[in-house]
Amino acid sequence: MDTITPTTTPTSAATPGTGPFLSVEDLRVHFPTSDGVVKATDGLTFKLERGTTLGIVGESGSGKSVSSSAILGLHRGSSAQVSGRIVLDGVDLLSLSDEEMRLRRGKEVSMIFQDPLSAMHPYFTVGNQIAEAYRVHNKVSKKVAKARAVEMLDRVGIPQPDRRVDDYPHQFSGGMRQRAMIAMGLINNPGLLIADEPTTALDVTVQAQILDLLQDLQREFDSAVIIITHDLGVVAEMADDVLVMYAGRAVEYGPAKELLTHPEMPYTWGLLSSVPDVKGDTDARLIPIPGNPPSLLNPPSGCPFHPRCAHRDKVPGDLCWTERPELLQGSRGPSHLKACHLANPDEIYRKEVLVEIAPELAEEL
Amino acid sequence: MTQADHTPEDFMTAEQARVLAPHAPSVNPTGAKPILQVENLRKYFPVKSSGLIRRTIGQVQAVDGVSFEVPAGGSLGLVGESGCGKSTTGRLITRLYEPTGGAIRFGDQDIAQTSARGLKPLRREIQMIFQDPYTSLNPRHTVGSIVGAPLQIHDIVPKDKVLPRVQELLEIVGLNPEHYNRYPHEFSGGQRQRIGIARALTLQPKLLVADEPVSALDVSIQAQVINLLQDLQKEFGIAFLFIAHDLAIVRHFCPEVAVMYLGKIVEIADRETLYNRPHHPYTQALLSAVPDVKQAAIGGRRERIRLTGDVPSPINPPSGCRFRTRCPLAQEICAKVEPPMLQVGPRHKVACHFAGEIGKHPEQPVTAKLLGVDDYGTAEPGATPSEIEQGPGFTDTWFDVNTRTVRHATPDQRS
Amino acid sequence: MIAYVVRRLFAGVILLVVMSIVTFALFFASPINPADFSCGKNCSAEQKEQVSRALGFEDSWVTQWGKFAKGVFVGRDFPDDPELRKTAPETIAHCPAPCLGYSRERTSTVTDLIKDTLPVSLSIAVVAFFFWIVGGVLLGVTAALRRGTIVDRGLVGISLVLYAFPTFFIGLLLYKFVAVQWGWVDVPRYTTIEDGGISGWLSGLLLPGITLAVFFMAGYVRMTRAYVLESFSEDYVRTARAKGLPKRTVTFKHALRAALTPIVTMAGLDFAGLMGGAIITESVFNYPGLGKLAVLANSDFDLPTLVGLVILLATFVIIANIIVDLLYAVIDPRVRLS
Fold first, then answer.
1. By the CB < 8 Å criterion, does B170 face chain A?
2. Cα–chain-centroid distance for residue B187?
């Protein structure tokens, strides 16, 4: 994945094998409420190839989970208005009927969720729930499905899988539950796996185990993975590409290495500088982002981040207040896109941000 | 999404100066006396049988022999994974739980066994900040009555002075003092946590036990709250026992950090030592498991120590060293003898038979001679075990694990 | 599990004992002397004392409770007077175990009174229970599945109206129009199964059953709707959808199963409460049930009958509670396995 173009590329003639594996174009998810329309996702565009991982970063309410639910078609049957295109393996998922989409759910796209305790039904055994995911897409007997469930539990590292298959979710530890969720998500060998905060509820050593497992399985199945998280560390270690979301839009998008070492958008700087680093300089300072995430009902005018932006005065005029910056190529090549009016972000980052949050890195540059 | 009705712009101008000031990591005041000394603190919860008559059939050893001290005006961090007993420790110190044994010396008083009545004056001195700003505030009370309640319970100020004090407190924690008559649901998560902090400050405590104070908040808000706590510490000289699972945040906030595993402290040291030269394999594994943003420059996963399996049950903890079932270094002695908390540096204690820096762990147990056992943990006939100081603080002599000799502090290392 | 059942039963028995003591204490602390009622208007002080002794009211309530408790297990005689037993055995009423007391007003043991009236109330309650559960839950689920549509709004609206209607009004409406004016059903009259067979029994219970069910049904429509909607927002229902399960499976296997758990709890307790709540329905249709008995006993201060009824109803509530808890353990593995 070298080049990413912000504009909608013509993929109408796309057939399996050509074009990107997953292409999301101008995705909008709007929720009409009595107070007005909540624009949870408002024009999101990205691409993903098989075998690669996209990290979507943002805070609560940034639209990251809503967007991934839209890929799975989970907003169908609700009042949400979904528009744009979601092309998976040559098929626009938004143009499918509900039944056609259902047959792809869990088979071609599957999802694992943040809290595996609440995401599993408390009244059914773990094995039952995993086998159910297999049987819905494969015409096999219960016995065969259960054997397959045991096999998957074994694959994700549950000890004594033939015995644990009959346990209920509450009898599993947090890490084992998330392993079981992964087994459920991968049992039909989907091409795309969406992991929504898969390790947020887990301890660090367990988190490391789960991330290892995800990477191993991705290699084995050659799946495309979207990992949604607020933890930039997870993104740095897992993702090939990073998409930073703010107020329902992408504000920065590019290869992980490039984006995290040379971020060009003040919100990304804020995320980097507001989280202390476990390995970095002990003199590193903590600079929070002031204020609160914006309302999606009444998003701020111009750049949605301007009310919290410490660098808005560096932009001439009142551009930040009046005009929303488009997601465009920045100063560092065509693969790194940013939505910001700042003319020299790289320099500001190096001179003003990095010296505070990672003095040792600033000296190197 | 409707929060307090100030626009983001107002918020920014009112707060920007305070909030945008970069915050360096906290430093403990030098030479401060400990305000809190915890020694051999234990808390066992009984486990009842499920039979007809409910007998006590075992005990969850949630906290089992924990010793540490918190300097006046300083901070000690308590980290560990879920179920390690760190929150229970916090609740023991605030006496929300009754300790099974051990001492909690606050000032010159042991509060471990004080009666509920005797604790009342103490409740003014030790306050707690809770994790969840959504459930720890009563939704039917206004912010004013939440923050003001301690003043009335303890009958400190006359009734007509309560409101001005409440407003002053709201201002201190960065909230609009005019909002005292609003209800918690009208505030965002970060603002609610500020309310919880204001409540904890009401009685001007000397020690704050902060139990995961930021883990329920969005990342951009976490830093705001951490900075606020640092400001308060500097301004009012409050000591903190900072309990969290996030190693990076603890490192930023606490000059001294203790790592807990299955009810015990396995390593305690100053920040520099603990994060750069940890000696306990669990601390090493924990630190190596934290995903690091800087890894982006290299790509791929960070090299790390893999721990297998789950934390064992605290009802039947493993014999000897509790970490041995998951420890890459474990040998025979670890199952037989519990490693003592051994001081290995000026401000560094570790409980491991094979304590050493990563990759430099000794082949033979460093503790065997001290404990009077051979390298496999069997008692040596005729050997006399050395006295190992097990108090809460640090001493001026320690055991150097590299040279296996006792060393003494140089004058500048003395506390 | 068995240990759990035994423990619950044991606790239930203790609760029952405490409850009966409290009932006694309350009734006998009352300033009204029940002997006044028994004796009639033109009663001399001497007669009154005699009656009082015959009823056993001269003892302290503690002693009376002791006698009552003994009577439950071994039966007792009224009046329990050894002399009288010798001289005039025909004036003594024997109350065999389980004896809940003797009503002088009705010249019958309370146990017999209950034996006569309980089947009537139980019949009405069972039929009402059927209507309200089937109707309430089905309509509630329907409303939830069609949330926001005209069906949903209609069901919720109608249930609100019915909820607000007093039971006697609904009973009278049904009686007057359905039975009398339009003649769709026979004028309801209680028929035992022995006399009229199942169909006769049922047809007599149709209108009273519906009358009693309406109030509860209306409540259950709203409650079921709320629980089902809540369960749809559960994470595990989202997981079920993400697996690609058909909507039917998601709804009926995953969402409903969780939503119905609290409804089972409510229904069990409400059924027990229903036994005592049938007073109005029984009065409207003039059925000789527990409710009617309670009204009559209350009007002439027939203490033994009232005490017997209170204890009976309390027993129902306690038993229902135990059954509900056991059902819970059957439904929810988290309760069963912890």
1. no
2. 28
Q: Do C235 and A118 touch (CB under 8 A)?
A: yes
Q: Cβ–Cβ of B51/C6 closer than 8 Å?
A: no
pLDDT tens digits, one per residue of A168-184: 999 998 889 999 999 99
User: What is the least distance, in Å, from the CA of A170 to any CA of chain C?
Assistant: 7
Q: How, if at all, do strands A22-33 and A81-88 pair?
A: antiparallel
CATH number assigned to the domain with residue range A22-246, chosen from the 4 options 3.40.50.300, 2.60.40.10, 3.30.420.10, 1.20.58.1000: 3.40.50.300
Domain count, chain C: 2
CA B25 distance to own-chain centroid: 16
Which long-range CB contacts under 8 A does C167-170 form with residues at least 24 apart? C167/C211, C167/C212, C167/C214, C167/C215, C167/C280, C167/C281, C167/C284, C168/C280, C168/C283, C168/C284, C170/C211, C170/C214, C170/C215
Chain C residues whose CB is inside 8 A of the A127 CB are: none
Do C90 and C154 belong to one domain? no
Whether residue A170 lies within 8 A of chain C, CB to CB, comes out as yes
pLDDT band at C50 (very low <50, low <70, confident <90, very high): confident
| CATH superfamily label, B8-47+59-254 | P-loop containing nucleotide triphosphate hydrolases (3.40.50.300)
Give C-chain residues touching A102 at CB under 8 angstroms. Answer: 244-247
CB contact under 8 A, A59 and B219: yes
**Residues on chain B touching A278 (C-beta within 8 angstroms):** 247-248, 251, 275, 287, 290, 292
User: Cβ–Cβ of A307/B304 closer than 8 Å?
Assistant: no
Write the pLDDT tens digit of every residue in A33-57.
888 899 999 999 999 999 999 999 9
Residues of C near B (Cβ–Cβ under 8 Å) read 3-4, 6-7
Q: Write the ipTM.
A: 0.86
For chain B, list residues with pLDDT below 50: 1-19
Nearest CA in chain A to B291: A233
- pLDDT at position B82 is 84
In chain A, where are the structural domains located? 22-246, 260-364
Domain membership of residue C274 as a residue range: 115-336
Domain check: are C123 and C207 in the same one? yes
Name the minimum distance, in Å, from the CA of A148 to any CA of chain B. Answer: 23
pLDDT, tens digit (0-9, with 9 covering 90-100), for A11-33: 334 445 568 999 999 999 999 98
Q: Which of C90, C111, C132 is the last residue of a domain?
A: C111
Nearest CA in chain B to A173: B310
Co-location of C102 and C180 in the same domain: no
Looking only at the bridges linking them, the beta strands covering B239-244 and B75-79 are parallel
In the prediction, which pLDDT does A47 show?
94
A91/chain B closest Cα distance in angstroms: 31
Whether the model clears a pTM of 0.80, i.e. scores above it, the answer is yes
